[in-house]
Amino acid sequence: MAVKTIQWKNNHVVMLDQRLLPGKEVYRAYRDYTEVARAIRDMVIRGAPAIGVAAAMGVALGVVWVKGKNFDREIERIFRTLAKTRPTAANLFWALERMRKIYIEKRSLGIETVKRLLKEEALKIFEEDIAANRLLGKFGAQLLRSPSRVLTHCNAGALATAGYGTALGVIRAMKESGKEVEVLVDETRPFLQGARLTAWELKKEKIPVTLLTDNMVGYLMQHSKVDAVVVGCDRVAANGDVANKIGTYGIAVLARRHNVPFYVAGPTSSIDLKCSSGAEVPIEQRNSREVSHIFGRPITPRGVHILNPAFDITDHELISAIITEKGVITPPFQQNIRTHVRHQ
Amino acid sequence: MAVKTIQWKNNHVVMLDQRLLPGKEVYRAYRDYTEVARAIRDMVIRGAPAIGVAAAMGVALGVVWVKGKNFDREIERIFRTLAKTRPTAANLFWALERMRKIYIEKRSLGIETVKRLLKEEALKIFEEDIAANRLLGKFGAQLLRSPSRVLTHCNAGALATAGYGTALGVIRAMKESGKEVEVLVDETRPFLQGARLTAWELKKEKIPVTLLTDNMVGYLMQHSKVDAVVVGCDRVAANGDVANKIGTYGIAVLARRHNVPFYVAGPTSSIDLKCSSGAEVPIEQRNSREVSHIFGRPITPRGVHILNPAFDITDHELISAIITEKGVITPPFQQNIRTHVRHQ
Prior knowledge:
By secondary structure, the first copy, chain A, is an alpha/beta fold.
């Protein structure tokens, strides 16, 4: 029943190919880190926490076949290749940093030990992500009344993480704690994560879900159909600005206008204190074909100029609270995020 | 070169099937008013002014074959059938009202004369719509600086009218008056009028156009890429609230936050003084399959609940000006619209 987004199996990384959902459930086994990097770039797997796990497993996979004398050069190549896949996801760099730390601290113990420790670290990142989601889910669930109609965007579910989910983790925790919850999700063009992935996850869990197009959010809020917004995050800056899937900002602006609380859910591994504000977060620009074609068919004349920024920045002043595995961060974010991250 | 959205030809109504654009340019000939009604409902033709023209031609077509003794009953059936097609478009009811007035005032002149006069009235509505667009285009073009990057939504072009267009009429008039203009258009899910129709029209005119998904508007405004928004309208209430394609409201909210002027362009036939505010405008709810399927393929699991309101209401306080063939209406709309409509 549980969604198996990514697994480590017999020195292979196995991923559910999310591009084919909800039509087909295809699991792909990878034995080469460059294939893992391509899978991340091509969105076989997506969602910042899941990307972090995939990158960590990619490193563990990459070193399996590396010979002793090339180890330093090869592992740097592996880090570089994986780091170049998706520029916005904080968890990608955070996970690679954790892997690098193991490598640097333990290399004196010998190559085979380092290989084992890197695999263990990747699995630890995987396990910790699920644990963090369960914890943040509980904190988030406490913020929301029963019954609630919660709007979410994109997919911040089990498919975007090692399991359980961030925004959908909050939803799952609400259900587990006996709260009534109904989810509204926009389809999230161009990749349709809302329609394809979130609707699929929630239907499996028998949580009521209603699908809308991205441009219907204003209509719903005008008609008082949304009690709260809960979204995930790809990177949280030190001032509380949040990079998340394109369209998040517009929803936050509407939520503010209609006095709907706007919550961001994510593990502390999504927080990047080195970015002082959202302006410093690199925004990935993806291939125009993701917009111009659907199911391989063009939706617009050939040669039309196309934009495809994959993320936008939501100003911290539009955010009611940020929910992590350590608790709930409320404004003023500038000071509270720093304290929160350092808190044990 | 000019787009032939709808024509009257040898007692047939000929329409360009907009569902197939931009891939195919297919013209369909209708000789039965019920087929015209179905074409309006199924969006072979769409856009409030074009719907008005199609309905008027539908009446003229419907009476061609009606025998004298059934005339009163039959024409009522024709009016009823056409009035039921699209509930939001003011121009539909306005056009049917004009046709009814001819019928009531001229019936004493005999059936054959009434039939001829109804055809003439439909053609007059067609011609007047183009003339109104050209006029409002000129008024609108004066409001916009050169160069301007204008965001539009959906299609308020030649395809949405008898020709030339309302929002795109303003764009065309800018170009004709030598102003530099670049258009940004969102794809406008679920029917993709922006991607399919507006991009197609503008490409034909060699006006630079950039396509984005509906959820990228906030990103563009954050990056100061939009100088003005110009959209069409399906109905304008007496207080200036505007019903237009779903998503218009969200764009207006973002425009306000970023101090981007938000203009609505439409002929006075879109103004409905009988609706005191937007709350009184009926919002059409369309088939869920328009959202759940693209090119006949599902984008979401079977059985997911789906919303598909076709329009939303933009509060008058978010609108900088309404541009009609009589000039530019500025706030306070409550009083200025009434004066404007009565003005010769």
